[in-house]
Amino acid sequence: MMQPSPTEPRWLLWAREIQALAQTGLAFTRDMFDRERYERLRSLAAEIMADHMGMAAPTIEATFVQQTGYATPKLGVRGAAFLDDRILLVREVADDHRWTLPGGWADVNESPAEAVAREVREEAGIEVRPSKLAAVWDQARHAHNVVRPFHVWRLFFLCEIIGGKPKCGPETSEVAFFSEDELPAELSTGRVLLPHLKRMFEHRRRPELPTEFD
What we know:
There is one protein chain. 31% of the residues are buried. The N and C termini lie close together (10 Å). The chain is an alpha+beta fold. The chain is elongated and about 60 Å long. Strands 1, 2, 3, 4, 5, 6, 7 and 8 form an eight-stranded mixed beta sheet that branches. The protein is built from five helices and eight strands. The model has no long low-confidence stretch (mean pLDDT 95).
């Protein structure tokens, strides 16, 4: 099946690829002149992003310098937990208090299921057991209103509530459950989109659906 085209600007895709090539090259080269070339490519990627994002190139390059080894996408997780026919959402403090599924970056030494359970507990006070991997989506192929220096994949899990009570965490300002016909308009679109939430409701109704992926 032909993959949909990325929705992100081409300059961002090019700059990310240049950065990834430089990072991987620096991880494997043993030649001092190649190392200089890869370092220059890394600087060029930072300059491209800085020119379009309104940030200082040294700030972006400092982030790139911290990335070592073979370059791979960053991995995030989101948890779709339901109470009856209502889905759990949280307001993110860091994004003008907009709504999203609880979730975040996966941590080292955690399985994906452990990561999403931790994120739901930290952001919403709810204990969950992940029951299904509903989707693996490439952020670049969905219309997120955000520009990130790194390529991101997100894993969306259906989760069963097994305990806890709704409670805000350090990164959230509100916790609530919503039915499908009352989903909030103010979504944190850098994290989740309305079609994503709709698909979680569909997976809830039809557990036999296969995992979706780009």
